[in-house]
Amino acid sequence: MTPHLVSPNTVLANALHHAEDVLTPRILAAPPERIVLVVGTQINGAPHIGTSLVQALSFAMAARLRDRFGIPTEVLFSALDNAPYELSTDPASGHRYQRAYAQALGDQALTDLVAALYQPLFTALSRRLGIPHRVETYTQQQAGEHFRRTWLRLLPRLDAARWWLAPSTGTPHVRIPCPHPGCGWSEKHAERTRVRLTDREAAGVDAVCLHHGPYQATITPTTSAYLDLATLYRNLVKELALTSTGVGGTLHVMVKGGDWIFGSLLVDEALQAVGLTRAQLPARLFCPQIVTDTGAKLSKSLIREGHAPLPEGTADWMLDTRQWPGTVAEYADQLLTVAETLLSDPRHFFRSYSAAEIGRLITAPAPRSVSAP
C-alpha cells in the first residue's frame, strides 16, 4: 500500500485553508478582470521533473483560481532562450564570454526546440483543465516596444536599484551581443560594457567582442539590437512592464520554484527602490522545490557534469522527461494527480520534496493526504 503523504505544519500553512489563499488578498484588494500565471524556464536542454512539476502546478492553480473566484485565467510560459549555449574565456583580458541559445540557434531552430520539448505537455495540460496558454520567448519579449520603453524609463533611476540587482559589484549586467554576422558573443559579466542614455527614447551601448573587438549599439523602443539582461535585472524590467500593464484589469502572478524565494527578495527591494509601493509589487507563487538527499536543489547540470551523484531512487526520466515510459497525455495526467495532492493541503504545497518522493508520487497510485497532527 502506498504510504500516506504526511507534511509538517508551518507558519504559512497554519494561516491558510487552501494553498490559493495566499493570493486572496491581491484578488480582493483590486478584483481583476483576468489572472495570468507567468511561469518561465531556461531553454537549455530537455526539461527535468522540477520544470514539469512547476508547469503542471501553474495550470492546476489557474484552474482553482478560475473555479473559486469566477475570473478567467491563463498561463503564460516564458521560454528564456538567452540561457548560455556556449562559454569561452578571452585570453587577453581573462573575461568570460557567452553565446546564448538565441544567437547560436536562430529563431526557427528555437521555435522548433520549444515546440518539441515543451509544447506537447502544455497542450495536454491546457486541454485537460480547459486553461488557455501562450508561449513567449525572451527574444520576443525583449523586442517588444513596451519592454524596451520600460527599460529606457528605468535607466535614470537604476542607480537606486543597482546594489539590490548586483549586491557584490553594484553593476547590473547588460549584454548586447556582437552584431557581426554569425557572431553573437557578449561578455558574460559585462565588465567593459557601458550604457548611456542619449535621450528619452534611446540609449547608446559600448561593448567589446571576443572576436571583433570594440563595437557600439543603440537601443530604442523599436530597434532590433538584442537587449540581454542578467537574471535579476531581467526580472525587474519584466515585472515593471507587467505592473504598468496591469492597470487594465489583469493580475499577473509570478510562478516560480522554491529556490527563487531568496532571489525575489532582492527583486522586490529593487522594485521599491525605483518607486513601486508594496501594494504594487507583483503577486508571487512559490512552488515546492525538488531536492537531493543533501537538501540541495536537484540539478541536472551538476549531475551531468559529474559534480553530484544521481540521487537514490531517481529514474533517468526525471532528469530528461523525454524518457518518460508512456505518452505525453499520461505524463500530464500523472503530474496533475500529484498537483492535486500537493494543492489539497497548504502543508503539502509550501514545502520541499526529495526527488525520490516526487518520483514515488508520480509513478505510484495516488496517496491519501493526511495532515500532520
Helix content: 25-40%
DSSP E strands, number: 17
CATH topology of the largest domain: Rossmann fold
**Helix-strand category:** alpha/beta
The pLDDT mean sits at 91
Q: What is the total domain count?
A: 2
Largest sheet: spatial strand order: 6-3-2-13-14
List the helices and strands and how they pair.
Blueprint: E1 5-7, H1 11-14, H2 24-29, E2 34-42, H3 49-69, E3 73-80, E4 84-89, E5 96-100, H4 101-105, H5 107-117, H6 119-129, E6 133-137, H7 138-143, H8 145-154, H9 158-165, E7 174-175, E8 186-187, E9 194-199, E10 202-209, E11 213-219, E12 228-229, H10 231-245, E13 250-257, H11 261-273, E14 283-287, E15 289-291, H12 300-304, H13 328-343, H14 346-349, E16 352-354, H15 355-363, E17 369-371
Parallel strand pairs: 1-17, 2-3, 2-13, 3-6, 13-14, 15-16
Antiparallel strand pairs: 4-5, 5-8, 7-12, 9-10, 10-11
Helix pairs in contact: 3-6, 3-13, 6-13, 8-10, 9-11, 10-11, 13-15
